[in-house]
Amino acid sequence: MLMNRRQFLYATGLLTLAPSISLAQLKDTYYEVLLRHTRWAETQYDPVAGRYRRTDFGFAVVLGNAVLLTRGNYDAALAGIEKDVLRQHTLATIKHFAASNVLAGGTEWGKTLFWDTTFQSYFVLAARLLWPDLDAATRADVETIARGQADYTTSLGTGNDPRSGGWTPNGLTGGYRGDTKLEEMGVYAQSLAPGLAWHGDGPGWREAFGRWSRNEAGLPAADLANPSTVDGVPISANTAANLHDTFIVENHGSFGPHYQSELWRTSGRNAVHFLLAGRPLPEVLTKQPNGELLWRTILATMSDAGEPLMPMVDDREHLYGRDVIPLAFRSTVLRDPMAAFAEAALASRLLAYQAHPPVYRLAKFSGEAKYEPEARAELAISYLLHELRPPVTPVPDFFARAAITIDHGADPGLLTHQSAAAWAGTVTKPGFTKFAWQPAHDDWLFKISGTTPMLLPPATVTKRNAVVHQQVRDGFDGTASLLAFADGFAGTATLPTGTIVCALPRPGRVDVHNLAMTGMPGLTGSRTYTGASGRVTVRAREAFRVDELTFPATTARHVRMVGVRPHPTYGYSLFDFDVEGDLARGKPTTASSFDTGMEPGKATDGNPATRWAVARAERGRADSWLAVDLGAATTVSRVRLRWETAAAGAYRVETSMDGAGWTTVAEHPRPDLSTAGWLDVDGRAGFVARAADPITVHGDTISVPSGIVEGYVRADLRAVAANPAPQCPPSVQASTADGFLTLFNLSNADVTGTVRLHGTRLYRGTQLTTTNGTGYALTLPAATARIEPPWFTARHIPAGITAIVHDGRRVTFRGGPARFTLTHRDGTTMSIVLGQAERTVTMPQAKPFPLNDLALGRVTFPNSVLPPGMTDPAAAVDGRQNTSWTPGRDGRMVVDLGSVYGIRVGLKWTDGPVPPHTITCSTDGKTYGQATVARYVAVSTGWRPGHASLRSLSVTGGDPVG
């Protein structure tokens, strides 16, 4: 059996690679994980009360129990409890909490929309699975709960739940800045689903369910362009604005993919009730307004583990058990092959994740205790979804299909690039500034979550200039940004190869995940770093960090630790500060600050369980300190510091005779490796620094020097570093990583001049060949960045030839006579004979990138859901000649240009009678009319069968307006 085989592999330590999970194994995997998790679930059982605990909704474990008791092959050895005993615990708990629910006349829990109704949904579902085993009174209570909650939620209309405090959907207006109301509206809909599913339609129930469900992902600018009906109501009737107009969700003041998934998380909870009750799914569960554009944002941040990367969230990262249900819903109910791939990737890691300490748990990296019973319940629902709706076959080339570049705007603060080889994002949200990069989409390689800094200074960005390159318009995918800070500039760029480039105003930092998680790829308990100076292996720290520092003997009365780099979230905290063994024990100890109950003396009291911690308000302060007075001058040569989670990234030890004048005697960390030019990280990624200063490794932290730094997924770093760097005018920095010319103007002034390049790649613009390269004529506006792809390579071209690259197809040469070979980046080769006169060459079949069409690759509406008879309007802006948009009867499409431009619009139709049509424009997506300045362009038709389809909608114009 699968379970016994896995059990053997775990016991023998042979399970060292994440297993590949087939569609047939998904249910078995979920079942086995639930079995193993039961050992944790039983810690929630109170033997005195005879039921699972109320604390943190621990009693919600009954849903996982109900699945194990009614399905599959129960294995008591894995579960750690006999099946009959588990049944007794479960039934007693259901009986108690059914009666104690407020809706059934109790006082212990229930009715409150946040968060009781989430666990109430699990509870009702568990009761229904075990319905034959429940007594009549308990059944009546469960029915009362489902009906009563539907009645109560409906009675609120569009108002707030007075029991839920500040948790509110803000009526049907919603909200998207800081905290989306998608989640709140989802909870309102979720509280109605059990009543609708198990008891049919009560007064106003279905209307309320549909109203909240349709508005969850509402965005008026998009919804007003969609007349499609869902459950009989037009999407254009939606009023809520719960998303930014780039279809990104904020929560807790930042972009949170965890909440981006709420649309399908609540849908999964709701759908399982209807499916188990044998009732048809409400249409809104399968036709979700704007759902696919929201899903696109998840794909744009997806990792190889089936979880989205979370560059602005920390305590919701790596919640494997809790993150299954959105994928399970999309793969089974929505039949999404992309979600099916991600779900299989996540499921393949579940057992390895679960076996990592603390064992059995499914949400072990979160600070919220209620996530654990919730994860069990949602894994149980995922199992049931697979039982009721077998999943679609996964796509084979997920990341190639998911590849996209999106600028979500300065307000959300995320410029993201998902490529086939890596994910990267420039984060400029205040408090989260970083240039996050995950080579090979491995979310266990570099730490990028929450406030963890990466590469960029963590300071506030005062000005942001961002450029998004798209294959359809520019011939390649990439992003470039130039960021201004109070004291300087920084630049970032991402390339289609997965490589990143940054221009750093000061040294940057990268933190590396390093732990042992048997069965998880890459997490072997060590990381190996290789550079020109040698190789070092850094072992993972399995417990709280202990630093033993020695230094030349010195005479001192006072010894102190002075912080240099605090823990990014928690600052500094020490269990023990020992000097020469026990000289500091019980001695007077002071600090720059302390938190209540964590006074300075707790670090020198000899009690290993007590600790000093900086005051909460001082956690971000770098130079916090802790000092001990030894009482008399003493010879000291060593200190020992035992840190809590809030361990210093860097600090120094100082001594003093009088407590006023201090001398540094030791510093931490001392580099494990310091190497010039390049550094390979565990064979998984690498950095090349175009600077004289070295790259250093300090434990699990990499420090890179200021200037141009390039990051590669896999490359011959020694060879890359040996390539000469571009020579630039003052205030300009440049890179030719992977052949692309990346340019940064790190100043407030326009720059003209010459960039001297090695080799004979030719970029858009004018360049003059030299004996070993080219001189590229540069014009770069103030505080901007851009990327130029290498459209041509001229082999054996002599010095003194001027090449003017007009676009990706055409180049003009001057300065002959000369003979050389011209190769296009698509591989096409042409022999060039250049005489005294200039010669213009056009490459056959090549496209003249970049194309001057603002509509290419832009988001179009209607999107999801399409009206009857209409095909996807995106076909009119995809740059292909063999695709077109069929409007359907009186169909209308809208393209969002992303910004307001001065515009000219052109239409091309397929063969046949062109339908009557009008073109209107809008700056806000709501009010349309005739204009030459617009962000939204609409084509309204009187289309009928037999009319032509729209082959292309093109928009040309100048720079953004305003």
From TrEMBL:
<protein>
    <submittedName>
        <fullName>F5/8 type C domain-containing protein</fullName>
    </submittedName>
</protein>
<feature type="domain" description="F5/8 type C">
    <location>
        <begin position="572"/>
        <end position="670"/>
    </location>
</feature>
<feature type="signal peptide">
    <location>
        <begin position="1"/>
        <end position="24"/>
    </location>
</feature>
<dbReference type="Pfam" id="PF00754">
    <property type="entry name" value="F5_F8_type_C"/>
</dbReference>
<keyword id="KW-0732">Signal</keyword>
<feature type="region of interest" description="Disordered">
    <location>
        <begin position="870"/>
        <end position="889"/>
    </location>
</feature>
<dbReference type="InterPro" id="IPR000421">
    <property type="entry name" value="FA58C"/>
</dbReference>
<dbReference type="InterPro" id="IPR008979">
    <property type="entry name" value="Galactose-bd-like_sf"/>
</dbReference>
